[in-house]
């Protein structure tokens, strides 16, 4: 059965309770993800971009229930994984996998590359031991490594090769959906392009759906079909790639694009600058979270939460002034 959306996230919220500063204080809450909604079409790449601490990685982990959401729903091929029991979720994990930011810290340094790739197959009880070993060799070839390298340990590979092993591990159970949590940010620029091209080739070959997390606007422009910009746990702008970069609407998105190095001296975004620091997610501003730093803010921005509304074809913005 084919679905209009491979992934559908609706009003996702993930709040964390943290330690009290003292015995009689109220227990603080971190509003890491605060009402995020988006859809990803089958075989497409949806990007989440924003500054560090904006909640994009927590969103990614919550979508896979690696972090338990506070509320909301996450549908994968029509199944709301937030309603699955622990046992059912464990069996369903073969359909969804993740590639982490740091390839070295996400692998056991005492385990060979072959065993690292084989781990999802063993845990999910997919295939016989012989079939699992054959699958490992097949996956090594798919990601551009040699079959005999399965006997090497993580420290014997370069950073790019380690990330290829992580890609192979994510592909092992033949998933439909892969979360890429800043998969190239720890790599050199030249290696970044190789991994991005590898992900694009695998997506075309196997019809994979990606949720791609990044703080780099140039990277999301290269690989994503649709992009959402996050600020303090909320999506402030969402559009297809072409519309977002050619007709940016939200002042925060303009500031992000203005920070990207360019040789264009006539850039219309060069004047955009932000004041102050990012507020704490434990005490986010009222109304529009961005109003304390926005150069265009008005009185109502501090009082009313802007709704994410469509302002152009396939282009949504959460701003009172757009």
How are the elements arranged and paired?
Blueprint: E1 7-17, E2 29-40, E3 45-49, H1 56-63, E4 71-76, E5 79-80, H2 86-92, E6 96-99, H3 113-123, H4 129-142, H5 159-171, E7 177-181, H6 189-206, E8 209-214, H7 217-223, E9 226-231, E10 234-240, H8 241-246, H9 251-258, E11 309-312, E12 315-317
Parallel strand pairs: 3-8, 3-9, 6-7, 7-8
Antiparallel strand pairs: 1-2, 1-4, 4-5, 9-10, 10-12, 11-12
Helix pairs in contact: 3-4, 3-5, 4-5, 5-6
Provide an overview of this structure.
With 322 residues, the chain is of the alpha/beta class. It has a domain of 70 residues. It contains nine helices and twelve strands. The strands form two sheets. The protein has an eight-stranded mixed beta sheet with strand order 6-7-8-3-9-10-12-11, sandwiched between helices. Strands 2-1-4-5 form a four-stranded antiparallel beta sheet. Strand 4 and strand 5 form a beta hairpin. Helix 4 packs across helix 5. The longest helix has 18 residues. The radius of gyration is 21 Å and the shape is globular. It starts with 6 loop residues before the first strand and ends in a 5-residue tail after the last strand. The mean pLDDT is 90.
